[in-house]
Amino acid sequence: MSIKLKALVFLVVATSVMSACGGGGSGSSDSASAASASAASASSAAASSLSSSSSSSSSRQASSAASSWNSSAATSATQLSAGCGAVAQFSSGKYSLVSGGTTREFWVSVPSGYDKSKAYPLIVGLHWSGGAATDVYNGNSWASGTPFYGLKNLYGDTAIFVAPNGLDSGWANTNDRDINFIQAMVTQLQQGLCVDSSRVYATGFSFGGMMSNAIGCEMGGTFRAIASMSGSLWSGCSTSSKKVAAMLLHSEADAVVAYQYGVAARDEFVSRNQCSSTTVAEGSNGCVEYQGCASGYPVVWCGYKDGGHWPSSFAGKEIKTFFDRF
Questions:
Q1: Which domain holds residue 253?
Q2: pTM of the full predicted structure?
Q3: Does 159 reside within a domain?
Q4: What is the CATH number of the domain that holds 102?
Q5: Count of domains for the chain
Q6: Using H for helix, E for strand and C for coil, what is the string for the chain?
Q7: Is the pLDDT of residue 76 over 70?
Q8: Could you read off the pLDDT of 179-195 as tens digits, one per residue?
Q9: pLDDT over threshold 50, residue 134
């Protein structure tokens, strides 16, 4: 048996806000809506019923979706997903599944020349309030000038990307409905494509940054790292013993999601990851990394004076550098 086949046989398969954030409208009303998000128990994920035009049988998907995302955190060793070595069930384009009785949509970007024997990192890109998955997927929008906040161009064909669509143009995550959807979506992609399940990441801006933080709080068994731009904790932050590495970026001049809310989210991850208050400079854009964090779970903070409520010009490069550490 070849080394490659042995690896496929023996490697463990990973188990699987404001409305002004969109650039207009009153911040207070959408803030109240986002703040109303409550965290349901992880067992509610089992209620997600999966269906996709290019997915495998619904019974197998539902069983996998029921797996808790609070399983052991991913390690740096490559973890081949169930889709490795099999015919791809996804190509680039739009897909849907049913989660909690609601049809949810997501857009997948598969590398050209996709290799079913190569495990790719999976990057989830989350849109802002009033935005849509297509804004992240296609780029050419005010908050994502190029696809996936510039990350698609930086990674090229070395990563799989997915842009999910929020409900009501956002990520209120009421009763964990968005957490459950994200878990079901990732499970489908792990079953239908060759994903390195130790390298699943999430990033987003504004409401998408808030949802990235919610993922970081609750989904440490599925996601390795998150990067939140101009976010807060308004999409919820459930208690979990599982950690993620976290990068947070926020402008002091943000007049929509005030700087203090980004600081509060940063402090949450500093506490969860057991970091000290000591920091050292990271990169060349004023970012700092907290010291003494739990091994493998750093927290990087990029608080900057310039800009406002939009992604910084350096965000993409800093985020890729951070994700590539894991």
A1: 46-323
A2: 0.79
A3: yes
A4: 3.40.50.1820
A5: 1
A6: CCHHHHHHHHCCCCCCCHHHHHCCCCHHHHHHHHHCCCCCCHHHHHHCCCCCCCCCCHHHHHHHHCCCCCCCCCCCCCCECCCCCCCCCCCCEEEEEEECCEEEEEEEECCCCCCCCCCEEEEEEECCCCCCHHHHHHCCCCCCCCHHHHHHHHHCCCCEEEEECCECCECCCHHHHHHHHHHHHHHHHHHHCCEEEEEEEEEEECHHHHHHHHHHHHCCCCCCEEEEECCCCCCCCCCCCCCCEEEEEEECCCCCCCHHHHHHHHHHHHHHCCCCCCEEEECCCCEEEECCCCCCCCEEEEEECCCCCCCCCCHHHHHHHHHCCC
A7: no
A8: 999 999 999 999 999 99
A9: yes
